[in-house]
Design brief:
alpha/beta, about 50% helix, Chorismate_II_sf, 8 strands, elongated, binds prephenic acid, chorismate mutase, TIM Barrel, Chorismate Mutase Domain, subunit A, transferase, about 375 residues
């Protein structure tokens, strides 16, 4: 299945001053001085194409700093006039959209806490009708690809064709080094469904702490993401929100300088030839794997019929354990990851059980 989004390529609406595309600025606009000072430093890095700042902040508990509000729009306007950087803010209600558009904000983004709620997204989409503004949609808090896609579709159906997704990681109960688990598979899946949709990465929210930002940023670029949104602050130690994950503009420069930019393809004929040769070998091996899986499944069916005729259970725990043990030992000798091998075997065993259940049920129907 492919998504049917009507979108314009990123290059037609985003002027990237230096590769890769970096959107940066404070988590929150706190004071006019703080925003302007950060904007100038960020501009002077020469690495940043868009200035970001949160002015309406959804906070988990009441009583925390909830953003400076509409006054921040005037500060952003001034920052843009002084630095020439286009601006981006998060919007979460129709009123935010109206105010941001009236103040000439260049890019709007929808935050993870809004993307989870189709009512909120629809309200934002309705307010966007007729506007020609780029919109970026962060993934929902929970790892639900359909919600992310639904939000992108709602915004697109409102006529927004300058559209991008932002991967900011997902909330998880499991203890992790990250504030939000990257769960790269979901972003890769979205890219597969909509190859034309630009996906940016937000390492600040994935990491929650600045030390991990370089690693996640590199991984995002290596997964062919089109840019990075990295929070920066003149003095992160006194930031009013997300102090641990913001970086100074100087640190931002270092992070970006250390990134290796890899292209999606190479025009070097030697590379292309060698890659083709290796891919041909992979094609042959994939064919063999599938052929062998087909042969294995035929045996599983035979066993299924045999079990049915002798009233023997499908699940054979001892045999399954024996398989797991022997194959993971072989796999480790072949330098395959244990985790990976177990996952493959579990998939195969699950399919055997499904197939044999079908065979057993066929017997019930006949009787
Ligand atoms: O050995 C069997 O009894 C089978 O049916 C085969 C098989 C397998 O896929 O290898 C399937 C189900 C059992 O739980 C154990 C093993």
């Amino acid at each position: 299945m492919k998504l049917n989004l009507n979108i314009q390529p990123l290059s037609s609406w985003m002027k990237v001053s230096s590769e890769p595309l970096i959107i940066s600025g404070p988590c929150s606009a706190e004071t006019e001085e703080q925003l302007l000072a950060t904007a100038h430093l960020v501009k002077n890095t020469g690495k940043v194409s868009v200035l970001r700042a949160g002015i309406w902040k959804p906070r988990t508990r009441p009583g925390e700093f909830e953003g400076i509000g509409s006054i921040g729009l005037q500060w952003l306007k001034r920052a843009k006039e002084e630095t020439g950087l286009p601006t981006a803010v998060e919007v979460a209600t129709a009123k935010h959209v109206e105010e941001a558009l009236a103040a000439g904000v260049d890019i709007l983004w929808i935050g993870a806490r809004s993307t989870v709620n189709p009512f909120t997204v629809q309200e934002i989409a309705d307010a966007l009708q007729g506007a020609d503004v780029p919109v970026m949609v962060k993934n929902p808090i929970n790892p639900d690809l359909a919600l992310w896609i639904g939000a992108l579709e709602r915004i697109n159906r409102a006529g927004i064709t300058k559209l991008a997704a932002i991967h900011r990681g997902f909330s998880s109960f499991e203890k992790s080094a990250y504030r939000n688990e990257p769960m790269w598979d979901l972003a890769i899946h979205l890219k597969t469904l909509a190859p034309e949709l630009p996906i940016l990465n937000d390492p600040s929210h994935i990491c929650g702490t600045r030390d991990l930002i370089p690693y996640i940023s590199q991984q995002a670029l290596d997964l062919d993401m089109q840019g990075l949104m990295i929070e920066s602050h003149i003095d992160p130690s006194v930031a009013w929100t997300d102090a641990k994950q913001q970086v100074t503009p100087a640190a931002l420069t270092e992070i970006v300088n250390n990134l290796t930019i890899r292209k999606a393809d190479s025009s070097n004929p030697e590379f292309t030839d060698k890659l083709q040769g290796l891919r041909d070998s992979i094609d042959r091996i994939d064919d063999q794997i599938l052929q062998k899986l087909g042969e294995r499944m035929a045996l599983v069916e035979k066993i299924g019929e045999y079990k049915r005729d002798n009233d023997v259970t499908i699940l054979q725990v001892n045999r399954w354990e024996e398989i797991l043990e022997k194959r993971t030992a072989l796999a480790s000798a072949l330098k395959l990851e244990k985790d990976f091998t177990e996952k493959v075997l579990e998939l195969i065993h699950g399919e055997s059980i499904r197939k044999q259940t079908e065979i057993m049920n066929a017997k019930t129907e006949l009787n």
